[in-house]
Amino acid sequence: xxxKTQFGLTAVDTVPLxxxxxxxxxxxxxxxxxxxxxxxxxxxxxxxLGTSDMPVRSAFMRLxxxxxxxxxxxxxxxxxxxxADRFSQLTAVRT
Length: 95
Hints:
CATH class: Mainly Alpha
Helix content: 40-55%
Radius of gyration: 17 Å
Low-confidence stretches: none
CATH topology: Arc Repressor Mutant, subunit A
Strand order of the largest sheet: 1-3-2
CATH architecture: Orthogonal Bundle
Strand content: 5-15%
């Protein structure tokens, strides 16, 4: 339950937009909403998320650094296709 303030206001969400977008894309990747080999564009995802392209591009960069997305020549990204052995390695590390 939120504490009452002097003026009866509720605190605003202080999580930056780029972090919210990143976390939403991580959830989507982890839950299998994107298929291996699927190409993603910042424009389409930004439209779906109701944001500008910039927070989506920022999330793409972070996810590429983690090798969770693969860069494409045109600036879009691709959900990587991984082998069963690699998947087993990744899940073993996470448990």
